[in-house]
Design brief:
The chain is an alpha/beta fold and 139 residues long. Helix content is 22%, strand content 19%.
């Protein structure tokens, strides 16, 4: 299995048939996100139900406006501030969708500043965060 390193930590590329992870950014994002989940277990919030899309049982709360699941709160993550206070926040390839209508074509935004407001809330309230976004897709 192929591996990659980030700051002396070695990870295996993630390969899963859902979303063809072998051919996109999820091959790297998922292993790093899983490490983050395990490291901060018990004091973690995920924004966007990405980990739950690949693993059936998650034990951390998730904020996702559209997806459903046992640990998922259907809230608009960009409007929350107190939810992130003293928490560790994980968001994998989610913020590039903030401000877009779910049925809009690529590039059509209702409010392009939503992601910036979300990042400000995280920066000012969260203890640690790992936020990823793809380059070239969904922008």
């Amino acid at each position: 299995m192929l591996r990659f390193k980030i700051v002396n930590k070695e990870f295996r590329y993630f390969d899963h048939p859902y979303n063809k992870t072998k051919t996109n950014e999820r091959a790297i994002e998922i292993p790093i996100g899983l490490w983050f989940c395990n490291y901060f277990k018990g004091n973690l919030i995920e924004v966007g139900n990405v980990i739950g899309s690949y693993f059936l049982q998650i034990i951390h709360p998730v904020i996702d406006l559209y997806e459903c699941g046992p640990m998922v709160k259907n809230l608009n993550a960009s409007l929350l501030i107190d939810e992130y206070k003293d928490k560790n926040v994980l968001s994998i390839s989610t913020i590039e969708h903030f401000g877009r209508h779910p049925m809009a074509q690529t590039g059509q935004y209702e409010d392009a500043k939503v992601a910036i407001r979300f990042m400000d809330a995280i920066k000012n309230n969260a203890t640690n965060w790992l936020i990823t976004t793809p380059v070239g897709d969904n922008l």
